Amino acid sequence: MDALFEFKSYLRHALKAGGKHSVHSPLVFQLMTEVLPPSRVFNSFTEIEALRNDLERSNQLLKVEDFGAGSRKSAGSERKISSIATTALQSKHCAQALFRIIDFYRPRNILELGTSLGITTSYLARANESAIVHTIEGSAEVGDVAKEVFLKQHIKNIVQHIGPFDAVLPQLLKEFDRIDFALIDGNHRLEPTLRYFELIKAKCDENSMIVLDDIHWSKEMNDAWQKIISMVEVSVSIDFFHFGMVYFRGGIEKQNFVLRMPR
User: Rounded distance, CA 3 to CA 84, Å?
Assistant: First the structure.
């Protein structure tokens, strides 16, 4: 992670970002006013966050294979679960925003690149239990911890895949007729991020959504985001700083929004 770049990006985002009253797109206005308000609280939140707290207290060491740009704050082949939980997981605020999106739009075919310890995956799966969530994790021991997290919640609609994205993703995509929702949260380099996006985009239709995590994590990630939102197929993009969303809706004017997440 380029901490200085991320800090400067945060300042630029804070100065530029608007709220719901600055939105003139019905699609995005609905997202801001009906989908994302934090008043939409669900029983699942308490149980998932209790599991996050358990992970943050665990001193168990894991062997970690890192196939991307590395951890936010630490590196090495062995890391404590507590270190991963406190530095590499989606924040509660962002993970619960994703839950609200899944709950509202009810996508059925969900793909996640970057299971980590399974907290965000749990939010995705529990938001729509009739959906199937396919999630890919590069590190086997990290994936084992995520599996235990899923078992503790008796989640039945998650399919885990272990291995490098480059090896797993192309084969996995052959099983999909369509992807309704995808979360790209891993690698954090320009070329792989664009490549994964292109692969997933080929399985999307005008009702699909793709979320990219950590779009201001580094200059490479920011460059990837800028290239993605300039693609002709992307009709609407939203930069929430910690993650970005893109839509492929036809028949609407191309718009790129920089917004504050409702709090």
Answer: 18
Can you name the residues that pair with 183 across neighbouring β-strands? 112, 211
- Each residue of 227-247: pLDDT tens digit? 999 999 999 999 999 999 999
pLDDT digits (tens, 9 = 90+) for 42-67: 999 999 999 999 999 999 999 998 76
Tell me if residue 109 falls in helix, strand or coil.
strand
Tokens of 198: 């292109």
DSSP state of 134: E
Contact assessment for residue 122 and residue 129, using Cβ atoms and an 8 Å cutoff: no
Contact 169/199 with Cβ under 8 angstroms? yes
* Beta carbons of 209 and 181 less than 8 angstroms apart: yes
Task: Judge whether 176 and 109 are in contact, CB under 8 Å.
Answer: yes
- CA 3 – CA 137 distance, rounded (Å): 25
DSSP per-residue codes, 185-205: -S---HHHHHHHHHHHHTT--
Give the residue carrying structure tokens 């797993």: 168
Beta strands, E only, 128-242? 132-137, 158-162, 181-184, 209-213, 236-239
CA-wise closest residue to 42 among 129, 126, 151, 121:
126
d(CA 77, CA 99): 31
